[in-house]
Q: What sequence folds into this?
């Protein structure tokens, strides 16, 4: 009788502890968001979004250089990374037993686990060292390389959800193999593929490490791929670790903008799967 | 009779051929890129490998001027920060995932899981920013002095408190790693058949005993896999750690002292490397970091894969 | 005496294999035009495998290949140089589980088969869609929601949609692989009535594990057992006076 009471008490305490764990786990997120808004929202103004940084020591200015830079480099990275990643995913899903598919899948998992700074070093030796100067191109290459294995795996998972019966129905109608793959299979899971792609873009937009010594960063707004370029995460980093108090405030504001960009992209990704004709709909 | 070669294409195969060519090229890019990466890393670090060999991994001299480099403090720092982070994150993550799978009412599961996965979406540099201006002052004012006062007899909690330190970095790493460990643990726990739990409860076990006695043993290798996955993540984290660990090529017993990790040294010193041997040494560090994370991640996936094969859940 | 209907479709000593395993051996059947021909037999007897050789779907799945001939209008469809894709437009197939394309509307589903043939102007496409839906006995139920998702239809409606999709491109032969086994009795009856109408325009070959269905809906029947063709003949004759004792055993329910 006593023993049962003790066991029950222990059980209830442990259950309560798991609730505590949840509270402790959720706390940092709330604190981070609260701090971001508290310290950063005040600096957000139209000027912040439309102007380049002011010269050192002068007030005002904005993060247009970071916005433009992130847009450009993520855009260029996606231009190469998304088609290659989606194409590779289609290959692994449509020819699942080929040796190339097995190898590519394994290697994509390896790449997904590789620290992004290692990819940055690779882009440096591949492009920066050979060209003799930092460039946004090298930054885009690093970002693209991060994107490809992410998109490849999500695309493959989405395509695998399409039942084989659908492929057979299309083939029986006289669809050649390639049209079956593209207009039936891919079209059926297109929302899922778009979601996976946008999530990869959002992840890559927040990366700092691979850009540190490829795109390097820039005080001015630039769209030249052959020159160093700013990016939102780089701006946050240099402002946060800089010596000036104003820079620290700007760092909070830029971080808030960065989070907004990432959040908008992620929300867009989820919205894409809310189409009328989903497989699970 | 032997089967003839079967083709699936029609007589006019151009569409099929082009399609297959395109997707094959795309798939080929993946191993090619990785091979290229390993190749370039090896080439770039060759001067350092030639000069230092494996001694690089055990030496603790880091002198760019004399062109003497050793990665021992970096390796220790990386392993230490990651292990500490896991010590904090694993009990938390397990607690959360057990709560979500075993105890939570259905309405609460989705939102909480969603919030925790949001943690994974916050960029590393933002964690670093928050760490510098929120966490460090807080820790310096409250937790660190408290630890020194109560546990100061241990060498870990002695010495000067600067702010940026191994412990700070470990704490932020713990927050960053937690969503990954939690989400894999949650999947592993959900894959345990309900019959296991029900059998335990029917035998008179309390809710907690059902978890520790029936569910966790079943899911054990999967959870270990989740932990190792978290380890892999922690080993490679760069920005937040660079901003919070203090960046000193030193090993200290005190957790309040600054330290260094392989990823941080690359982030910190690459743009200011003064000579070719410095670059080569940093590239060597990148190569080692790459090798370590590949091994750890491969081990993690093997464990997780073995659990899913054991028939924990419904077969695909 | 009425002239025997012409033979549109026939197999000659057809053997179908998966790798080294023989699923169907030495089957020779002649399918008269504009009739419903049923293929019956217990599970695993090879009737579905046989059906899939008729539009070259057999070779799509794991190591499938054949020996022998399948003759459409006298031409072997397995001869080298045959355009498989074009063949499948002449010999259509409806599967056991209804498979409407999830991302397409009802109209686009029916028109899906038209997209891989010669181009039709839009007005013509609409007319073809309507005709196919009428023939599949689905027009009245969906005419007001042609742009809606095909997933909103019931199982029986979805299957009739798949039938409409198959006939829209005007194949010559329609193969049906247990088309009603996933449907409720009412939908089953509607599909069977449909076959009666459709055979005026198409040659129909249907695999069914339901003997009563074969007896109701078909003009001629073939009985398969363990990969071999045991008996073929008019449905009336097979079900009243089967020649082979195995056929009689199956039909009277002694095994199956």
A:
């Amino acid at each position: 009788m006593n023993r049962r009471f003790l066991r029950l008490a222990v059980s209830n305490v442990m259950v309560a502890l798991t609730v505590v764990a949840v509270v402790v786990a959720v706390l940092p997120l709330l604190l981070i968001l609260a701090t971001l808004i508290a310290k950063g929202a005040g600096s957000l103004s139209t000027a912040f979004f439309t102007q380049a940084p002011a010269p050192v020591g002068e007030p005002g200015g904005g993060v247009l250089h970071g916005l433009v830079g992130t847009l450009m480099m993520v855009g260029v990275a996606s231009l190469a990374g998304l088609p290659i990643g989606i194409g590779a995913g289609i290959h692994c899903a449509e020819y699942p037993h080929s040796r190339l598919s097995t190898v590519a899948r394994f290697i994509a998992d390896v790449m997904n686990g590789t620290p992004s700074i290692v990819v940055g070093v690779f882009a440096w030796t591949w492009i920066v060292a050979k060209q003799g100067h930092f460039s946004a191109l090298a930054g885009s290459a690093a970002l693209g390389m991060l994107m490809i294995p992410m998109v490849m795996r999500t695309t493959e998972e989405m395509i695998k959800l399409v039942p084989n019966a659908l492929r057979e129905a299309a083939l029986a109608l006289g669809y050649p193999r390639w049209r079956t793959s593209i207009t039936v299979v891919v079209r059926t899971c297109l929302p899922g593929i778009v979601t996976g792609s946008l999530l990869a873009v959002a992840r890559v937009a927040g990366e700092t490490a691979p850009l540190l010594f490829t795109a390097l960063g820039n005080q001015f707004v630039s769209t030249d791929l052959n020159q160093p370029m700013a990016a939102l995460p780089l701006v946050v980093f240099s402002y946060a670790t800089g010596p000036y108090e104003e820079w620290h405030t700007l760092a909070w504001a830029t971080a808030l903008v960065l989070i907004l960009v990432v959040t908008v992209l992620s929300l867009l990704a989820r919205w894409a799967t809310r189409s009328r004709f989903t497989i699970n709909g | 009779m032997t089967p003839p070669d079967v083709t699936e294409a029609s007589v006019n195969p151009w569409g099929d051929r082009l399609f297959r060519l395109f997707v094959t090229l795309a798939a080929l890019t993946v191993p090619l890129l990785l091979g290229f990466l390993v190749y370039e890393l090896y080439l770039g670090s060759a001067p350092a490998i030639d000069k230092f060999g494996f001694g690089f991994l055990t030496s603790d001299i880091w002198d760019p001027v004399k062109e003497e480099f050793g990665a021992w403090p970096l390796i220790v720092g990386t392993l230490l920060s990651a292990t500490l982070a896991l010590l904090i994150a694993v009990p938390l993550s397990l607690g959360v995932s057990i709560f979500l799978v075993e105890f939570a009412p259905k309405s609460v599961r989705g939102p909480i899981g969603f919030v925790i996965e949001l943690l994974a979406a916050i960029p590393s540099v933002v964690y670093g920013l928050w760490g510098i201006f929120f966490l460090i002052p807080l820790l310096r004012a409250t937790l660190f002095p408290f630890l020194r006062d109560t546990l100061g007899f241990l060498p870990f909690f002695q010495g000067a408190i600067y702010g940026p330190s191994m412990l700070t970095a470990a704490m932020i790493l713990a927050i960053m790693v937690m969503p990954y460990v939690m989400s894999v643990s949650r999947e592993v726990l959900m894959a345990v058949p309900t019959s296991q739990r029900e059998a335990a409860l029917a035998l008179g076990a309390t809710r907690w005993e059902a978890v520790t006695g029936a569910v966790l043993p079943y899911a054990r290798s999967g959870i270990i896999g989740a932990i190792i996955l978290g380890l892999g993540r922690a080993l490679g984290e760069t920005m937040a750690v660079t901003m919070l660990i203090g960046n000193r090529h030193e090993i200290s017993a005190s957790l309040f002292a600054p330290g260094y990790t392989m990823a941080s040294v690359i982030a910190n010193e690459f743009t200011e490397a003064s000579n070719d041997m410095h670059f080569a040494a940093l590239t060597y560090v990148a190569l080692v970091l790459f090798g370590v994370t590949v091994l750890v991640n491969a081990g993690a996936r093997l464990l997780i894969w073995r659990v899913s094969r054991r028939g924990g859940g419904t077969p695909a | 005496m009425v002239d025997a209907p012409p033979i549109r479709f026939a197999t000659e000593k057809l053997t179908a294999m998966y790798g080294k395993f023989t699923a169907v051996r030495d089957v020779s059947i002649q399918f008269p035009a504009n009739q419903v021909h049923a293929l019956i037999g217990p599970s695993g007897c090879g009737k579905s495998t046989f059906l899939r050789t008729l539009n070259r779907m057999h070779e799509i799945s794991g190591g499938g290949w054949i020996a022998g001939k399948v003759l459409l209008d006298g031409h072997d469809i397995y001869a080298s140089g045959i355009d498989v894709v074009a063949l499948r437009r002449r010999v259509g197939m409806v599967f056991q589980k209804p498979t409407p394309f999830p991302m397409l509307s009802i109209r686009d589903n029916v028109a899906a088969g038209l997209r891989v043939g010669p181009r039709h102007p839009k007005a013509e496409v609409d007319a073809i869609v309507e005709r196919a839906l009428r023939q599949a006995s689905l027009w009245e139920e969906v005419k007001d929601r042609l742009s809606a998702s095909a997933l909103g239809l019931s199982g029986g409606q979805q299957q009739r949609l798949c039938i409409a999709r198959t006939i829209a491109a005007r194949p010559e032969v329609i193969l049906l692989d247990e088309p009603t086994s996933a449907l409720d009795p009412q939908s089953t009856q509607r599909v069977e009535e449909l076959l009666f109408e459709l055979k005026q325009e198409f040659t129909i070959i249907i695999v069914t594990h339901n003997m009563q269905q074969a007896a109701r809906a078909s003009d001629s029947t073939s009985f398969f057992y363990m990969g071999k063709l045991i008996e073929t003949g008019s449905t009336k004759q097979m079900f009243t006076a089967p020649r082979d004792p195995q056929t009689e055993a199956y039909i009277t329910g002694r095994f199956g």
Observations:
- Chain A is about 75% helix and 0% strand.
